[in-house]
Write the structure tokens for this entry.
Amino acid sequence: MAGVTKLTIAGFKSIRELRDFELRNLNVLIGANGAGKSNFIGLFRMLAEMYEERLQLYVQQQGGPDALMHFSRKTTDAIQVGLTFEGTDIYRFELTATNDNRLIFTSETFSYGKEGVLPGMVWSFAGTPESSLRQIASEHQLPYVAAVIEGTRVYHFHDTGEKARVKQPHAINGDAVARLARRLLARRSLEAERVRREAGVMVDLIVVGEGQTEETFVRDVLAPALSANRIYASPRLINTSREQRGGALNLERVRKFIGNTLRERNDTYVTTLIDLYGLDTTFRGVTNSKGQAPAARAARIEQLLHEDVIAFARCRPERFIPHIQPHEFESLRFSDIATLCDVESGWQAQSAPLIAARNAVDDPEWINDSPQTAPSKRLEQLRPRYRKVRHGPVAAARIGLDRIREHCPHFRQWYDRLVTLPALQVRHSNIEYTT
């Protein structure tokens, strides 16, 4: 039986590009949460559905083409996959999205040959909604194809898939939920300690944000950069609305959320990524700091927020690192307007007002914060329209943290502090160990 020896994936879910990835009889995927392990395995689920000619059903069950394409069809033109079987047999396909929300094959080829020679036969199909792989394997007596596809089984422990029990409706029992939460938090603390012992000291950092844009930025841009310094960063959103669109933050809500987060464990740092623009006047310093330079104003509010949170949480003060971003998270995009405008075709022709706004100030963090001229309001004038969640993290990733740090001094000060965080000593004053 011939197995798959090499795999190429491009544009599938979180996998932008993976070329000629070698596979063996046993393959172990190791990585942090959100690294793409489940999406890698998910490709084999899709292959199984394709082989059974159920691709369109699978696409709709997953939420449509944009849920399967890397950062949606706005960023990715096609999903490309190639499987090399033992020898020189190669199966390749390319899927593109249609206006009626389907994925169709723009190409599907299977080349069959022997080691060291050109393929003896090539089958090629295009424009079809379902795969022809099963037909090829049956008509041309290629039993190993069926063996590989039909024999693939995905066993996903700690399941978080769409059919997982955790995602199904359940009756709520407050006491039971509280007991479960305490057990999970204790287990999480012990597991984190075990990982640190085995892999070396790694600093845990929770980044509290107010919306999906910040969450995606932390997960896809900030966390990978910090990991090089053994800082494990994970985003956590304050529950501001059912859609988690951000905003509507007041001091009491933020203080309670961050304080409770700090109380979960005593060996983690917590920081924030919150906009100065539109910050509620319940935050101390917001009103009486008006007229000051943006960075000085943000620093004063950070100092007062630190006092309020530590007084509530009663934890070591060094564990909380507040960051208020002047004037908005979108300010960072003005670090490189040319790269920003490359995200969408047509934006370069509309870049003149953005360039003028950038040139009128010392740095992007000075771009003013009125309801008409805040950074996000300026970007929303672009057509196709700038979408925070869709375009923001993509633009930040392309611009790069080095460029952002070069042009945004308050952000640079925050980032430089994060990369030098020392490991916190673990304290388990209220946990009893038994054997």
The chain has three domains: 4-150, 171-200, 203-418. The CA atoms of residues 202 and 419 lie 12 Å apart. The first strand starts at residue 4 and ends at 12.
